[in-house]
Amino acid sequence: MDIDVLGGLTLLEDGVPLAPTAPSELRVLAVLAAYADRVVPVAVLAGELGAGVPPERVHSVLERCARLFRERTALVRTPGGYLLDTAGGRLDAREFEREAAAGQCAMARGDHAAAARLLRGALRLWKGPAFDGVTPGPRLAGRIVELEAARKAVVEQWVEAHLALDRQREQGPGSAGQAGDGIPYAPGLVPPVRQFTPIGVEDSGWNRPRPLRTPARTAPPAAPGRSSARSAARPTRCIPAR
Q1: pLDDT tens digit sequence for 185-206
Q2: How does pLDDT run across 16-53, given as a tens digit for each residue?
Q3: Which positions ≥6 away from 179 have C-beta within 8 Å?
Q4: What are the backbone dihedrals phi and psi of residue 159, each rounded to the nearest 5 degrees, phi first?
Q5: By the 8 A CB rule, do 106 and 114 touch?
Q6: CATH 1.10.10.10 fits 2-84, yes or no
Q7: Which own/partner pairs from 160-169 qualify as long-range (CB within 8 Å, at least 24 positions apart)?
Q8: How far out from the chain centre does Cα 52 lie?
C-alpha cells in the first residue's frame, strides 16, 4: 500500500485509490496513516472522533473502513488497537524525512550542491498542507504540527545551501535559483537569491538560519491517561565522505 499525506490524504492499494466518504472513516484512516505500521490504541481513535465517543463506535467505523480494502490484511486488529499495514509500500512522509536527513548530512560535509539537490527532493514531495482536507482531532493535529515544523526547517536549509553555492561561485543575484527552482509547495517564500527575505515574515525571526532537526520517529500513540516517557531524539548519523 502506498500512502501520501503531504497534501491531501491518498491511499493506494495496488494502484487503486481508496475512497472513504464518511467524515468519521476519513478521520480514522488519517490517524492510522499518520502512524502507519504501528498499533494505534482504540482510545486514541475514539478521541479523534470526538469527546466521549465509546469504543464500540470506533470498532463500527473500522469495520466499515476494512470493507474499503481489497486485501483484508491491510487493516489489522490487535489486542491493543488497530494497525494499517503498508506491506513495505511507499509513505511520502518517510521519504521526506529520509531525504531531509541525507541533505543535512551533505550540509555537514560542506557539500552544498548535494545538499541543495537532496533538500529540494524532500520539498518536492509536498503537494500542499499535510492531511489537507481532513478535520484533525488532537492526535492528528499534533502530527501535522510536527510535519510542518520539519518542512520549514528544510526550506531554511535549502535556502542556506543555495546562498553558500552563490558565494562559492561568485554569481550574481538570482542565478543560484538555476539549480533549485520548481518547489511546488513553499508558501511565503521567494526564490533563493543573495538577499533572501521570506514574504510577510520579515520580523518574525522565521528566516534566521538554524540547524535542521530531523524529526524523531514518532512513538506509537499512547492511550489517554497513561504516561509514557519520550525518548530523546538521536542526532542524524552521517556517513563520512570517502
Answers
A1: 666 554 443 333 332 323 333 2
A2: 888 777 888 888 899 999 999 999 998 888 888 876 67
A3: 113, 116, 117, 162, 165
A4: -65, -40
A5: yes
A6: yes
A7: 160/107, 160/209, 161/103, 161/107, 161/112, 161/113, 161/115, 161/116, 161/119, 162/112, 162/116, 162/192, 163/192, 163/194, 163/196, 164/112, 165/112, 165/113, 165/116, 166/192, 166/193, 166/194, 168/112
A8: 29
CA separation for the pair 97, 95 (Å, rounded) = 5
Q: According to the model, what pLDDT value does residue 178 have? A: 45
pTM to 2 decimal places? 0.70
User: What nine digits make up the cell of 180?
Assistant: 533549485
Question: What pLDDT was estimated at residue 13?
Answer: 83
Closest C-alpha to 133, from 45, 17, 8: 8
Distance CA 18, CA 15 (A): 9
| Spatial separation of the C-alpha atoms in residues 166 and 79, rounded to whole Å | 56
Q: In what order do the strands lie in the sheet with 81-84?
A: 40-41, 81-84, 75-78
SS3 of residue 86 by DSSP: coil
Residues forming a β-bridge with 84: 75
The SS3 of residue 102 is helix
Domain ranges of the chain: 2-84, 92-179
Angstrom distance (rounded) from CA 134 to CA 172: 43
- How do residues 108-166 score in pLDDT, each as one tens digit? 998 999 999 999 999 999 999 999 999 898 999 999 999 999 999 999 999 999 898 88
